[in-house]
């Protein structure tokens, strides 16, 4: 069977990516970074989600020789001109401190009225092959930043984000409900046929 | 003599505004909010600097019957899509905590390379009269966010900002040097003739 590497160290993200992708690619073995020899992962230094997804995917291919999916995602808040954006994971300064990031975001938006609290999650996915072929795409989940943290599912900013048409936060949705509308679900469903086609060709 | 009210409670900002404006308006008495009866000041809830400057200036005119200058200013960082912007004073969540705001900004920009650390200060000034006449304008000081805090002058983000062409931060410039190039100096020099003309008419 063909193999593909998901180039992320974030355990919660890996879990979400895997649960969406594995059923879409029944003929392909999906590996995580723990399944391959350690290598130096690049800093997420690009100004765009797709740029960072490509960085991660390219580094994974270079280090392992496997086809690889890299991703980058974040929350883009209208009242912050699209930030935290690519800085979502380290918005409060400390890397991946969800509690601090959410506390800071709500404090920054304290005086922003309801009609200006629009936001969207973006997920960019890059798919790179040892042949040098590269594809990148992204998808969004629109919604609103609410005024408190609610819910125990998900991770990151899910607890402060109500998807469009929902009164619940992304952290209050079931896994199936979230994956059906999420930025990550949409991006992976878009990239899966490209992966299947490329790896099918290679078999 | 005609009088004009500077509608700010920020002591450091009032000092800077006064020292620039007073010599430009020798015929006019410049008052601060401590010189007039207290009134409810509006929250800075607008999405633009000029919008907030107008809010403050209008509220001051309404409460006191005096011609008033309102201002709003902030630091717009390219790598943050122009934020902290109108949220500059409360970027870290606590109002006007310069040390926390600077610490957070430097942490957010930790991985942003030198060539993408461009930024500018903006100062918007609104001048409103009891007659209902209103004017608003803004000015900028371009430069770069450095990687540490330096200097003891100024306030706000001056300690992390090197004006274009300077190796020193805005907090390391003399008062005269800063006022000559600053967003606030430029905006006040632009509004002063409008004030002089309007109040001259009224005498």
What does this structure look like?
Two copies of one chain form a homodimer. Chain A is an alpha/beta fold and 203 residues long. Chain A has one domain (2-198): Alpha-Beta Complex (Maf protein), CATH 3.90.950. Helix content of chain A is 33%, strand content 23%. Chain A contains five helices and six strands. A six-stranded mixed β-sheet of chain A has the order 2-1-3-4-5-6. In chain A, strand 1, helix 1 and strand 2 (28-32) form a beta-alpha-beta unit. In chain A, helix 1 packs across helix 5 and helix 4 (175-181) packs across helix 5. The radius of gyration of chain A is 17 Å and the shape is globular. At the A-B interface, helix 3 of A face helix 3 of B.
Average pLDDT number of chain A: 94
Based on the structure given, which CATH architecture of chain A is correct?
A: Alpha-Beta Complex
CATH class type of chain A: Alpha Beta
Give the strand line-up of the largest sheet of chain A. 2-1-3-4-5-6
Alpha-carbon Rg of chain A, integer: 17 Å
Q: Number of domains in the coordinates of chain A? A: 1
Based on DSSP secondary structure assignment, what is the total number of beta strands of chain A?
6
Number of helices of chain A: 5
What pattern of helices and strands is seen along the backbone of chain A? Answer: EHEHEHEEEHH
- Structure classification of chain A: alpha/beta
Helix percentage range of chain A: 25-40%
Most extensive interface, chain pair and sizes: A-B, 25 and 25 residues
Largest sheet of chain A: 6 strands, mixed
Question: pLDDT under 50 segments of chain A (min length 5)?
Answer: none
Looking at how many chains there are and whether they match, the oligomeric state comes to homodimer
């Amino acid at each position: 069977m063909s193999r593909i590497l998901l180039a992320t160290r974030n355990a919660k993200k890996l879990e979400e990516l895997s649960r969406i992708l594995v059923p879409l690619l029944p003929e392909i073995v999906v590996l995580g970074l723990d399944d391959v020899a350690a290598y130096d992962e690049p800093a997420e230094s690009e100004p765009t989600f797709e740029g960072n997804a490509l960085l991660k995917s390219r580094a994974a291919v270079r280090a392992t020789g496997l086809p690889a999916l890299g991703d980058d995602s974040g929350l883009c808040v209208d009242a912050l001109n699209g930030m935290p954006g690519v800085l979502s994971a380290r918005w409060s300064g400390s890397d991946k401190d969800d509690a601090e990031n959410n506390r800071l975001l709500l404090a920054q938006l304290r005086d922003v009225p309801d009609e200006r609290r629009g936001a969207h999650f973006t997920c960019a996915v890059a798919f790179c092959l040892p042949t040098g072929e590269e594809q990148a795409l992204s998808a969004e989940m629109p919604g609103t930043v609410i005024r408190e943290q609610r819910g125990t599912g998900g991770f990151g900013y899910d607890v402060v984000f109500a998807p469009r048409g929902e009164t619940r936060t992304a952290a209050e949705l079931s896994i199936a409900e979230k994956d059906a509308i999420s930025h990550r679900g949409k991006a992976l469903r878009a990239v899966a046929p490209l992966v299947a086609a490329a790896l099918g060709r290679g078999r």
